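Sequence of GDP-mannose 4,6-dehydratase (Thalassoglobus neptunius).
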Amino acid sequence: MTDLPELTGQRALVTGITGQDGSYLAEHLIGRGYEVWGIVRRCSTDNKSRLREILENPATANRLHLVDGDMCDSSSLRNAVNASRPHEVYNLAAQSHVQVSFEVPEYTADVCGIGALRLLEAIRECQPDARFYQASSSELYGKVVETPQTEETPFHPRSPYAAAKAFAYNITRNYREAYGMFSVNGILFNHESPRRGENFVTRKITLAVGRILAGKQKELRLGNLDAQRDWGFAGDYVEAMWLMLQQDQPEDYVIATGKTFSVRQFCEQAFAYAGMPIRWSGEGTDEVGTGPSGDVLIRIDPKFFRPAEVDLLIGDATKAKQQLGWTPRVSFEALAEMMVDADRCAE
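Predicted 3D structure, token representation.
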């Protein structure tokens, strides 16, 4: 980051700052002259790799302050709010992997659901004028009742993660209506980047591409190839988060590209870009994807199927376009290629 603006006096507190969205948001806010505070959960291993560029740059290191905290611990959240005295709070912390939420449902509910409540209470008690952003999710729609999904589409969560996010969504609205707090939900559809966690399907695909090219992996195992998602670039989506907190009135917004692609199509885009176009054969769990040489590169593994599948998500971000002036910049094709390039270089 170069040519930074002067500090504006604005302070932001970000939970989940070490994650994909948190790191992009920190860069965005610092680029706008903010002083950024981030809550970091204590860990025995280094969990700040996505923030390294900020922390190791003398021009930005003094604009980012990290404090210990945990979404499961109210006192640590109050301490973070008191230390930072933020004008804006962005709650991005979550156990955000849907499949994992079936394995640790109670923990997921505690972090994603009750964690949001703990943070709202800390703000209400310590910094009630701060503006609050809650990272909601398109997974709320689950078994969709209409396509595309808008701010008015009813929710039908299909996982412990989505159910916990539904609580967080509603408690955010409740604090807005009950206490007059500036608290908003961003219902973000899938957003990816080279910083995406390695256990998420898009990153799993592009990592496999890099490793197969490097001779370190033979094949990729996936679950439901026909699940369709509205995929955008995380760097675009954090700008929408910021824009929501700059409005005169607090409202909730869908953030999406308005286009949907299947896991199968993401595979085809990523492998073809790397010079390995995929040919499909077989049916059901016996289906395989072979490369130009005839080697099997993709197999179906039933262990990756969800207990309750979400088949199709596609968002209508008309409200965000009209009221926030936000539109996505990075296309599906460019996103897949960006991620392949990053993981190919890493290998």
